[in-house]
Amino acid sequence: MGTYRERASTVGGAVVWHRSAEGAETADTRVLPDGCMDLIWMHGALVVAGPDTVAHVARAPGAFTGIRFPPGLGPAVLGLPAVELRDRRVPLADVWDAREVRVWTGRVAEAEAPGRVLEHIAALRLRETAPDPVARAVAAGLARGERVAGLADRVGLSGRQLHRRSVAAFGYGPKTLGRVLRLGRALELARGGEPFADVAVRAGYADQAHLAREVRSLAGVPLTALVRG
């Protein structure tokens, strides 16, 4: 199913990743929601992947290189609210000026390390537009399992203001992002060998049945299938 590798990016909090082509033409890849947005080099084109609300299965042959932006950073790089790209994969030319995209497409195509060019693109954009300063604090709080009401108070926003800022920064409200990030915590624990009952407690679920329902709702398969994969 191809080889996947990633590294920390020079763009703070982002990850540069690459999937090789070996065997990928027959492999299904289940992409789980993680609150992130990606800029991807695939099949000679630059493509944007928006934040997902549920898992989707990708089956596309070939090699891919991308930069994955942590929750809240993508809108500053791409220049539009995350909600406009929610559950979508679109050509970058649909988001930016087509002439600019042609220039970057040529540079990525000629590069020995496409990921370095993707990082350069993101860094240039971030010099012009700063991310929402509240987004990082909100994402970090939700990743720790903070309750939405308490988090809103801590960052100085009303519940309605927090929801509006979250939809723009992450593509969905804070409760949904909290569910998505909790799924990531649970999967990390389960893949580390934790019994599922302990995973449920440590990741912040009411019980193992709650964990099972949430995994099935967001991932589309049981936790056992994700751990095996």
Characterization of this structure:
This protein is α+β, with helices and mostly antiparallel strands. The chain has 2 domains: 4-128, no CATH class; 133-228, Arc Repressor Mutant, subunit A (Orthogonal Bundle), CATH 1.10.10.60. It has 10 helices and 8 strands. The protein has helices at 74-78, 98-110, 114-128, 133-143, 148-155, 159-170, 174-191, 196-203, 208-219, 223-228, and strands spanning 4-8, 15-19, 29-31, 37-42, 45-49, 56-58, 64-69, 89-91. A 6-stranded antiparallel beta sheet has the order 1-2-7-4-5-8. Strands 3-6 form a two-stranded antiparallel ribbon. Strand 4 (37-42) and strand 5 (45-49) form a beta hairpin. The protein is globular.
Q: Notable features of this structure?
A:
globular; 2 domains; Arc Repressor Mutant, subunit A; 47% helix; 229 residues; alpha+beta; two-stranded antiparallel sheet
Percent range of helical residues: 40-55%
Identify the strand order in the major beta sheet: 1-2-7-4-5-8
Structural class: alpha+beta
- Main sheet, how many strands, which sense, barrel? 6 strands, antiparallel
- Which residues form runs of ≥5 with pLDDT under 50? none
Count of beta strands: 8
How many domains? The number is: 2
Our Rg estimate from Cα atoms comes to 18 Å
DSSP helix count?
10
Mean pLDDT: 94
Could you say which overall geometry the principal axes of the C-alpha atoms support? globular
